[in-house]
Amino acid sequence: MASSISKVYTFGFDNTLKYMRAYRENRSCEFAESLHQELGNTFRLPSAKGNGVQTCDPKNVQALLATQFHDFDLGGRKKAYRPLLGQGIFASDGKTWEHSRALLRPNFVRNQIADIEVFEKHVLQLLKHIPRDGSTVDLQEVFLHMTVDLATEFLFGESINTLQNETLGTMNEFTKNFKISLAGLLIRTLLGSLRVFHGIRNDKFNNAISETRNYVRKIVKRALEQRELRLAGKAEKSENPAQNYVFLYELTNQVQDEDVIIDQLLSMLIAGRDTTAILLSMTFITLSRREDVWNKLRAEVLALEGRKPSFEDLKSMKYLTWVMNETLRLYPVVPLNIRTATKNTTLPRGGGPNGDLPIFIAKGSDIQWSTYAMHRLPEIYGEDAAEFRPERWEDLRPGLAYIPFHAGPRTCIGQQFALTEAGYTIVRLLQEFESIESRDPEPILKRVGLTLSSANGAKVALTPVKA
């Protein structure tokens, strides 16, 4: 029998102000963690819709994402994301989502991910923007440019090549409109049911959405026209028969509806840009503050003797894997997430005096979980859970208490691509530079938007290897 939750977070005036202040000061991750430390791993979270729940209990998260997957859906997020992503994989549930998943998953098989040459091409562009005279560079900005360049080449068949600009502050129209669109999606998410008013007379947002989708539509139209020519035997022979894999071209073989393709491409672009850029940024922020970790990682990299890493090399580099695991543990790309109950149901834990009994969840209730807090639970990761210690991964098997790429049926289909891109970039930078220095004396401030980022950027100085 389901029990009730004894701990309740009251959204009174004072607590609302505390939450708003924490968000404004880029401390919302820590604020959520502090609530769990005070109220336990699961507590009631009153809202306009009634009593919701906030949890960081691995058993409850496992139920939400895997064992009771069909009891919950995305709720209001679908409507928040719809202007940009339509019925894409990140803005759909049920049969629509199942169709998206089936459509996209075959496009992330090993032979596409293992094509290292496409990574090297963009890393070389990235290296041009890293000073070799000891001056400060914001690597987060550089990584965001590199990942969007690489993602557009992989997805569209043509890169927007932002790193070819001499100054990174120069944004082309697509990048500018895409950025405005993402900012609008965040506002719509935060507004909840009030999002219906967001698009009214919001010409800047509406125009950015229209221009972003129109840019992609032109590329999709060309790809569909090329497909028709190929089928008719009229397509010109490629000058490069060994050309790189292109996600869009494979997608047009499976579906020919322009809007369906655009929805999926933009969904993949958001994931392809942010996930890897955040992992890289947080890794190098940490390396700049932990000389011991830099030295151990560089020793592993030097074993390659200057050879560019292959896919097999990256898979075999144990310490590199530990470093990326630890970065994603402490700085998960999506630190807070939410689901809505589609029917009256339960969650395994949170009820009773000890919080170890099942709890009742009413249909329509919102369930938030803090991946950030769960990834720092001492009962899973030890008393040093807040510390960056890659060696813990030598024998750590946290199961679904570690979900950097989500879990269950919605596990990120591009996670191996992201890890390969990040691992390759890390190795290449450690081959080019012998030391790193932090140029930011402040603690790491975690800005929470649609994804996590560093509010202060990733300001470092790198010393090149002596010739």
UniProtKB/TrEMBL annotation:
Q: This protein is called what?
A: N-alkane-inducible cytochrome P450
Question: Which BP terms does GO give this entry?
Answer: mycotoxin biosynthetic process
Q: Where is the signal peptide?
A: none
What this protein needs as a cofactor is: heme
Has UniProt tagged this entry with the keyword Heme? yes
Matching SUPFAM superfamilies, A to Z?
Cytochrome P450
- Record's PROSITE patterns? CYTOCHROME_P450
Listed CDD domains: CYP52
Protein family membership: Belongs to the cytochrome P450 family.
Q: Which Gene3D superfamilies match?
A: Cytochrome P450
- Superkingdom field: Eukaryota
Organism annotation: Penicillium malachiteum
